[in-house]
Amino acid sequence: MAKRYFLLLSILFCTHLNAQISFGGFPYPEVIKSTQSVRTARSLETIILPAIDSSAIASQDEAIRMGGTQFAFSHKVCFTPENSGVLLTDSLGTKVWRLRVRSEGAYSLNVIFNRYRLEKGEKVFIYTPSKSHIIGAFTEKNNLPEQLLATAPVEGDEIIIEYISPKGCNGELSVGSINHDFIGLRKLPSFDNSLYCQIDVTCENRYSEEKRSGVLIIINGTTYCSGNLINNTACDGTPYLLTASHCLNFNSLSKSEALAATCVFFFNYQTPHCFPGIRGNMEMSISGAEIMAFDGERDLTLLQLSSQPPVDYMPYYAGWDASDTPAENVFCIHHPEGDLKKIASDSDSPKKGTFLCSGMFAAEGHWIVDFWEEGLTENGSSGSALFNQDKRIIGALSGGYSDVSCEERGFDAFYRLGIVWEDNYKREGLKTFLDPTESGALTCDGFDPYRRGCSRIGNFRTYDELYYTTSEEEFLTGHNNLNIRHFAERFYLPQGGEVYGIHFIPETGSFNSKYPIYVHLYSGDEKPENLLHSQLVKLQNQQYVGRTNEIQNKILESLTKRDNYLRFDQPIVVDSTFFIVFELPENYSDKFSLYHTKLKTTGNSSYFKQGNNWLSFENHPVSPGAISMMIEPVVRRPEKTDLQDVFANPISFDVIPNPSDGEVKILINSTEEVKIELYDIAGRAIYNATEDKQEHTLPSSLFREKGLYLLKIISSETIQTQKIIRK
Fold first, then answer.
1. Per-residue pLDDT tens for 429-438?
2. Average pLDDT of the chain to the nearest whole number
């Protein structure tokens, strides 16, 4: 029986970072004291988008002619503050535009702004009417040369778009499309959509760096694919990403260029620590890219992301080999069916061959993998890199057999780097971009752009087991009848460092703006003592589903059994010992609880607050014993090195005099605008200011009592702290 061939179609998605990084904050107060009238978000007139059916989806899919697997229908619209929604001006002259839109039956909605040019101070948020899911703020830092912005999906079939423009600002905003998710992109469970024989990348101990190069891509808010960050001979951290041309548009460079600007790239979407049944986080993403090299006949696309992945994303630029030498063995890192990151491997050497997919690709242009010994590729794997035994990229996936199964693990065709290396058909090949030093090299090693990078630390050991609470039990690390609502996990960094955010895994619970959960960062030795940072738990909760045959009606707004990443507003400097504290609401609609290990004989790292006292879990009144909670900070250690970060932007400052019995001068060695904050010994904020000069004075009236004060200097890259002693 003849085999049928197919393109391994994928989903592409862009968000977060200076392209679509969310910069925190919250929408404007719901009731606005307006010079015009008082209108609440709930009183907004809702725009109902036209209904869609299978014929409309098929027609649009045919018109798009992209290689990705379509998950959303694109409603083309033209909504601006001038022609729709409600535009109000408050007593301070701040303009607030709100637009409420519904697309009946959508699992989620994502937005593409076809005109996005914000000025400093302006913000955009997108949220559900209940505010259970909020993304943003998007600011002037999200401005792109193309003046486009693609956003992550917001769950449900109704959203509010909010544009805040302070007096004197004149930004421009226009909504060009609202995309209706019809297959359940965010429906939970949103993993295990790929075949049972797929291998989670975190369950494979090899290739620890190469794993970090793999990303999931969403294109135009409607389709998805895979791709890999790739290095160049200058090792300068240029954010190049290799994928397949059919993921955007098969042969049209102009259409692909337009689609590249709509892409969202997700980093570290993978199961944490090979825990079965735990979904990965989707809070690490970048929006927008530009095509650098494109060859539809050979399936090549090289993108440059709109921003460098930040240090807490822990990116890695994979090495490559364009010598066209057959590999001894190969592996592939990919997102089949838009699922968590997987790995496939084969100990045999791939062969040069032709991919006979409707005569689409050039002859002898691919590496052929006949059979994967571990794992396999599926729809959504397109564009993922093929690595050789030296952990260097030698090609990227075009497609394979359509009747893929755990018994039929091939064949697969990856276009060869060697055949797209030089210029051809009046288009620049990879050489121009991946060998900018003109070294003539045909191989290049991988590269970590942050020599002092971030790491994810935790207190549980590889042999510790997660504890699952039965329905009859009270939650040991969550809501309980004892009214214990504060839980702390202790961490130790010998030389201190910076905390960029935290990963945490709830066993149960939903986030609700009416019943907020807070995370606090404390210093201290044996218990939380001095407050360093507080932040409301507000996450994007972006989850994926790839393969489904029917539309279900209910959207679950839960972060249960998934790895969540809460990025701090700014990195926080800590000394050797610090505590992450969860504060749960006394009143709640849904209980919340964190996963923890089963009781251990030694090694307790968890604490709870009873009354005003912090106690070890070894002294718990109901279930005493040593445990560790599933909380993991992302930290950056201060190791000394002669190698500098590619993207480092250090700021130094002096405090004079210190100790002091009068005013204090801060001398800042930078022309960058910084934020200055002062806290008393109890952790209360007593002063804040913004300064773009190199000298700032703290008046003596701020220091009302003798003792220690904490000064924070917040730049665009870091938070630095220093103690001030009042004599």
1. 899 999 999 9
2. 82
Distances (CA, A) of 608 to 479, 487, 499, 511: 12, 5, 22, 21
Name the nearest CA neighbour of 260 among 375, 357, 146: 146
For residue 349, how far is the Cα from the chain centroid? 35
Among 148-152, 559-563, 629-633, 712-716, the range with the most confident prediction by mean pLDDT is: 629-633
Cα distance between residue 707 and residue 2, in whole Å: 82
Q: What would you measure as the largest C-alpha separation in the chain, in angstroms? A: 90
Q: Is 424 exposed, middle or buried (0-12, 13-18, 19+ CB in 10 A)?
A: middle
Tokens describing residue 104: 């009946």
566: nearest Cα among 507, 517, 494, 508: 517
DSSP for residue 431: H
Cα separation, 60 vs 89, in Å, equals 39
Only one residue has tokens 């409600």, namely: 86
What share of the chain in percent tops pLDDT 70? 83
CA–CA separation, 494 and 319 (whole Å): 33
Cβ atoms of 366 and 415 within 8 Å: the answer is: yes
Of 484, 479, 482, the C-alpha closest to 469 is 479
List the one residue out of 693, 364, 393, 339 whose CA is nearest residue 547: 339
CB 160 within 8 A of CB 129: yes
pLDDT value for 545 = 30
The confidence band for 17, taking pLDDT boundaries of 50, 70 and 90, is very low
- Cα separation, 93 vs 167, in Å, equals 5
- CA separation for the pair 265, 280 (Å, rounded): 15
Could you give phi then psi for residue 587, rounded to 5 degrees? -100, 140
| 433: enclosing H helix or E strand | helix 431-434
Environment class of 48 (CB within 10 Å of its CB; exposed 0-12, middle 13-18, buried 19+)? exposed
Residue-level pLDDT at 221: 66
> DSSP string of 253-309?
HHHHHHHHTT-EEEE--S-GGG-TT-BPP---EEE-EEEEEEETTTTEEEEEESSPP
* Spatial separation of the C-alpha atoms in residues 727 and 707, rounded to whole Å: 7
Cα–Cα distance list, 157 to 43, 51, 109, 652, 655 (Å): 18, 12, 6, 48, 53
What letter does residue 501 receive in the DSSP assignment? E
Place of tokens 């408050």: 90
Record the pTM: 0.67
Cα atoms in the 13 Å half-sphere on the side-chain side of 40: 6
Q: Give the DSSP letter of residue 600.
A: B
What tokens appear for 326 in the block?
């057959």
CA distance 134 to 127: 4
